[in-house]
Amino acid sequence: MMKISRQERMGLGLVAPSFFFLLVFFIIPAILLFVCSFWMAQAFRLIPAFTFDNYARALSNTGFYFLTWNALKNGLCTAVLTVVLSFPAAYFIVYRTRGNLLFYLILVSWFSSYLVRIYAWRVILGSNGLINTTLMQLGLIDQPLEMLLFSPFATIVTLTHIMLPFGLLLLVSALRDVKKEYVEAARDLGASQTEVLTRVILPMCYKGVVGAFMFTFVISAGDFVTPQLLGGRDGMTTGILIANQFRTAGNWPFGAAMAFLLLAAFLVVYLGFVRLLDLLRLAPGRRFHD
Amino acid sequence: MSTPNIVELYGVTKAFGALTVLHDIDLGIREGEILTLLGPSGCGKTTLMRIIAGFEATTHGRVTIKGSDVSYLPPDKRPVNMVFQRYALFPHLDVFDNVAFGLRLKKWPKERVREAVQHMLHLVQLDDYGSRWIHELSGGQAQRVALARALVNAPSVLLLDEPLAALDLKIRHHMLAELKRIHQETGTTFIYVTHDQDEATILSDRIVLMNKGCIEQIGTPEEMYAHPGSLFCARFLGETNILSGAVSATDSEATFVNVGPGTAKVPANGTAVLLGQSVSLAIRPEALQVARIGAGEAAPEGVNALEGVVDDVVFMGSRVVYSIRTPIETIKYQETRSLDGSMLARGERVRASWRPEAAVLLTR
Ligand SMILES: Nc1ncnc2c1ncn2[C@@H]1O[C@H](COP(=O)(O)OP(=O)(O)OP(=O)(O)O)[C@@H](O)[C@H]1O
Ligand SMILES: [Mg+2]
Questions:
Q1: A119-153 pLDDT, tens per residue?
Q2: For labeling, which of A42, A81, A102, B209 is most exposed (least CB within 10 Å)?
Q3: In CATH, what class is A29-279?
Q4: Which ranges of the sequence are coiled-coil (chain B) (predicted)?
Q5: Contact A185 B90 (CB under 8 A)
Q6: Taking CB atoms and an 8 Å cutoff, what residues of chain A touch B98?
């Protein structure tokens, strides 16, 4: 008989609910969807089969590439901007402030809904919006800048605004692990402030940086509401294409195939990002000798 | 002084807001010595060390290292290295890379780095631990890595902030011996912070005793033990009996102090005292002589003696420590355990006396 120690039992007990949740609401649907991506659809009916047609159809469609490129571009720009903007803020909060007031103030922006913020940006970026009127009153432009709204720019600005608190939260908790002592030890051993950043702080909060980057990337690259409302005609992303297959076209297998292709693209980005950090020697590990 | 000072502090004062934690500290650290900053918690030892390392700026005063003023140099530009209390070894690097950290910043060529690191790991007896991760080390091993990581940079001064505080007693004694050996092999100047008087006496060439942000006394462990300059010092280093009383007579040879029913005579040691001034006498427990007073026998009056009753007997291995209740103070008496096992028992009446030279006259 296999014996399970008390501690193991407790561990299992703690993991079980979230595992069960994931199993029912993520793993099983994902497997079903994956299986479905090899089926066929005819007149709103699913026909079990094993065909790569859906994948081939997506990959031979230039529109799919264009929209996926848009999605990846939105995701990458948002992720880079979010990490780059929230890192200094997180650094300031962790090392330069005592309390958490500033942190909470930033998190308060979460309290407004996602859609409200999208519309707020519409107001700010619109032709009669804050930016255009200010620029015009300053005499810097004669005509409202049309490209502000309904452009990838608008999408990225809005997504960054939405993602910033997430990025900040992840980076702050990662930086909190890098105790001041490590920074001082590095300084003591002769590291300049930049060297402390690249040799100690970034490698030590590697997981937080990768986490913040990927989290913002996946959510904003997969988002199709913001691009739809702010991105303009050329700003659409794969997400809308996929959603249409499920909602209006009724071609689940094709939608599933595109979803998995997008997932594959995300994986490539993830591997690329991790590799990049590795090359920049910002990853932890045995890096220098042997 | 014969040996030149490698670090000098001139009037160093440090305030955090309204709280002044260091008051006008003047101190010279001699090349090659082990100097201990000793004092109770919160007296400013760490702050003083951090000022030398460059992590805190002075509010007033200057710091020089090897004759040049470093008051405004950041920590990475100072020729000192520090061993942190909780080691602060980088968890994302293995032992080798931790030790190599400073040398790589100096852009040493690979081969030299390897040689230097291996030499250091050998010195701290961790030859085969280069590829271990930090979390795979025991407390004592982590301590050695921290030491190697600092020493490999060949600092002019090595700063150690309570490096053994996190270790248990047995390893602590072993590490003290190791530290002494490493000090001898490298010849580096050590500034060592501790609040443990045993560590300080075992390790130091000189002790700087600190109290409330001021230097109370500086001296070798023997000097400090034999000639404490203040009550604080007498109490902080080792066990001591403090008898207080008023000066009854004084001349160029000796001072007489009323202690309880008797009188104590102390040879004059240059401390100026006034008639009637209240002073203290510090007498080490092992400097007493104690004799039984037979039943019915009258207690002999006399100089440098107190009569009392044995209150408590504590065995400390080879030593026995007695508490003796006297009319003024409960005093401690310590003797080496005699071979025939004859000991005083609780409740016995005794007479404790001491030679005049055994008492130290203290006015503060
Ligand atoms: N950054 C700081 N801000 C405000 N006060 C501080 C700061 N650092 C230290 N202090 C105060 O300075 C005093 C001396 O602190 P320090 O750490 O030097 O003591 P210590 O002698 O090292 O004590 P311990 O033996 O407990 O380590 C303490 O009262 C402490 O509260
Ligand atoms: Mg301290």
A1: 888 888 887 788 888 888 888 888 877 777 788 88
A2: A42
A3: mainly alpha
A4: none
A5: yes
A6: none
